[in-house]
Amino acid sequence: MYPQTEPHDNGLLDVGDGNLVYWEVCGNPDGKPAVVLHGGPGSGATAGWRRYFDPAGYRVVLVDQRGCGRSTPSAGDPATDLSVNTTHHLIRDLEQLRAHLGIDRWLVLGASWGCTLALAYAQRHPASVSEMVLFSLTNTTHREVDWVTRQMGRILPEEWARFRDGVPESERDGNLAAAYARLLADPDPAVRDRASRDWCTWEDQHVAIATGFQADPRFDDPEFRMVFARLVTHYWANAAFLADGELQANAGKLAGIPGVLVHGRLDISGPADIAWHLAQAWPDAELTLVDRAGHGSRGGIGDIVLAALDRFATHR
Questions:
Q1: Where do the DSSP E strands lie in the chain?
Q2: 46 CB contacts (<8 Å, ≥6 apart)?
Q3: Whether residue 88 lies in the annotated active site
Q4: Set 112, 136, 196, 269: catalytic member
């Protein structure tokens, strides 16, 4: 990966609804514009994302989506209103930021949840997107949420049982993401803390299949845990606030946008058929399934992403 660079511009953009969204720009001010859509929802745009881009060739925009990272107010505060934090709000935020920075079109790099947001954004605003590079694909459908919160118990039965038992017995047969979201809004801070721990423990366990897995040290931070768990459960409980199957059904709207899709065959968090079906419906996408890789950038996925970004650096 490229050496670490520091932002040469940053700010907080007032996107309405009382939200200020943090953004930063690094690389070449005259380079090819690109925007990074982080995962989670709620992970925030960490500095490591900058290293995927040649700083001489790209003008890279990192943004912390509503409620997380350096954006305010923090979703970790139970008083923060999440009704104005949906996929549709995030799409509007991206368009406001693009206009604010004077960018005509930008390449979109997304991972995991960031793929769901990237696809929804590009289908809504295809003229704003020059290319897309997506890895660890998700569409955040009802089926995918049910898989990762319930059906995956067939693979990790003991771990899943502990995760299920973190919610009241009366709610264990229902929408587990919604049940956890209710716990995370409980007036008792001890209940909220326990729920955030249980949720983030399960998050770590279901990505641990791949070789070289390391537990996410950010989950040791109670503030990060609350932000992450509250946003993930909010979005998953509502299947990303999208019509079910919408992103797959509307993939034809991406025609003319070159795309690189990279997915690990050992990704049990997001089975490979998600990426495969998308590639069949998106005429300008090329899919690479990486045999020994799981969820995330390890196992060779990061190398393919880096190569794709290098290739697109000269596209205008």
A1: 9-16, 19-27, 32-37, 58-63, 106-111, 129-135, 259-264, 285-290
A2: 38
A3: no
A4: 112
Dihedral (Cα; 66, 303, 285, 63), 10-degree rounding: 10
Give the pLDDT of the chain (316 residues) as one tens digit per residue. Answer: 899 999 999 999 999 999 999 999 999 999 999 999 999 999 999 999 999 999 999 999 999 999 999 999 999 999 999 999 999 999 999 999 999 999 999 999 999 999 999 999 999 999 999 999 999 999 999 999 999 999 999 998 999 999 999 999 999 999 999 999 999 999 999 999 999 999 999 988 877 665 555 677 888 999 999 999 999 999 999 999 999 999 999 999 999 999 999 999 988 889 999 999 999 999 999 999 999 887 877 878 999 999 999 999 987 6
Radius of gyration, CA atoms only, the chain = 19
CB atoms within 10 A of CB 204: 14
Q: Judge whether 267 counts as a catalytic residue.
A: yes
Known catalytic residue: 83? no
**CB atoms near residue 9 (< 10 Å):** 12
Q: Report DSSP letters for 249-304, one per residue.
A: HTGGGGTTS-EEEEEETT-SSS-THHHHHHHHH-TTEEEEEETT--SSSTTTHHHH
Provide φ and ψ at 43, rounded to 5°. -70, -30
Provide the CA 159 distance to its chain's centre, in angstroms.
23
> 130, 263, 267, 269: which is the annotated catalytic residue?
267
Record the tokens describing residue 85, joined without a space.
């934090």
Name the catalytic one among 130, 234, 295, 297. 295
